[in-house]
Specification:
six-stranded antiparallel barrel, 121 residues, 8 strands, mainly beta, 42% strand, Elongation Factor Tu (Ef-tu), domain 3
Length: 121
């Protein structure tokens, strides 16, 4: 079971439709996916799993949600391996298999300035 706030949301895996997919920097892509049922579980600070189509890439790739609307979510990812290289070839209008949002989200405070600090390799 996955939780959104205090409410339990059943984990689902389904196909969404890619409605926008752009290269925004060298080997960095932004993809917007229409998936109204998945959006219901989405929240700031959560991620979705994307399931590759290739036979050599069996495991889903977890990718953070960067933007959410009523029916779409946007992810931004870098090409760093076979799975994300495959995602970079997907075209607008194609289906993409994704999971409902996972991880621990958070509530954005109602203040004038927000600062996000991140780290990684």
């Amino acid at each position: 079971m996955i939780y959104k706030g205090e409410y339990a949301v059943e984990k689902i895996v389904q196909n969404g439709i890619i409605i926008e997919h752009n290269c925004i920097a060298t080997d960095v892509y932004s993809m917007t996916i229409e998936a109204p049922d998945i959006v219901k579980s989405a929240d700031v600070g959560r991620f979705i799993n994307i399931y590759p189509r290739g036979k050599n890439t069996l495991l889903p790739r977890p990718i953070s949600i960067s933007e959410i609307t009523d029916t779409t979510l946007t992810i931004v990812y870098a090409v760093v391996g076979q799975g994300t290289l495959e995602f970079s070839t997907y075209k607008v209008g194609e289906e993409i298999k994704i999971s409902s949002a996972m991880g621990n989200g958070f509530t954005v405070q109602n203040v004038e300035t927000h600062i996000l600090v991140g780290a990684g390799s």
